[in-house]
């Protein structure tokens, strides 16, 4: 067996979700939203399943969806992408796998920012790459030039950036993105940008894609996710956007992973990207209200809540909350004793983890959040 996988344990998401099921806990760990998503998208997918082709669509994606992705980014981010620069994938994780397999040669180093999505490191290693970690620290989770310079070596070829950053729930601002772009150009690096949370931003903030910064148009792979845009995580429809020389190689890796993606879901997502801008805006406001509701309840229980600028998540600082437990112990006790499941943020580090931060998911119905808040508040009183 390949040791990368044979030595790997169960993911923290599956482990905590299993404990939630076993204890009847409210699951504020795994990141999926309550609700059905946009009805127009569901209806388009159902119609396409019954009325249109269910045979292999084009490997790179249906032309309608590729054009819809390009048009969506033109409206929302001012990008000028062609259809040839968009490759449809079976979810953003497949896009990440394809990008890493396509761009890594054995021994190449990839700079990653911790905390990070747990798929990054095994995918890099399976492609023959070597992860090089830049450790971010709460509460700002800022990227510093000095830390980047310390991580880069003559073998470094790629930077893997998650922006907005899950689980820190931060957005990389224009100043830091400009610094990253300058750094990539100076060291001749290609950036793989995991931007699945780009439409789940709050307080009027607008996502800025690294591909649009000087020097980055020809050296960036931009990855997006319909599952995050429309809160339909089970759809598993994503995409990669890159200049033609990169896109052609990305497509070759993609064709030997999933080859293609269910055509009815592609037509559904094309419909959504074309017609559902109002739904995206309204969902952003609903999710922001859920963030504020949960944050208020946790603060009332005496927790120090870290800022949440984007994503489905917010975190609490246990040390600042005067709780003398590490994040794993806290999460295990909370799910067993209060029946509320969370995620310890140390699970998102491969080395030197932060151990005093716990993540909560807030994209739930108000009644669910209120019950979770009541349970956490009662548990915190007993803990004190």
TrEMBL record:
CDD domains: AAT_like. Residues 25-375 form the Aminotransferase class I/classII large domain. It catalyses: L-aspartate + 2-oxoglutarate = oxaloacetate + L-glutamate. Pfam families: Aminotran_1_2 (PF00155). One of its GO terms (molecular function) is pyridoxal phosphate binding. NCBIfam families: PRK08912.1. This is aspartate transaminase. The lineage of its organism: Bacteria, Pseudomonadati, Pseudomonadota, Alphaproteobacteria, Sphingomonadales.
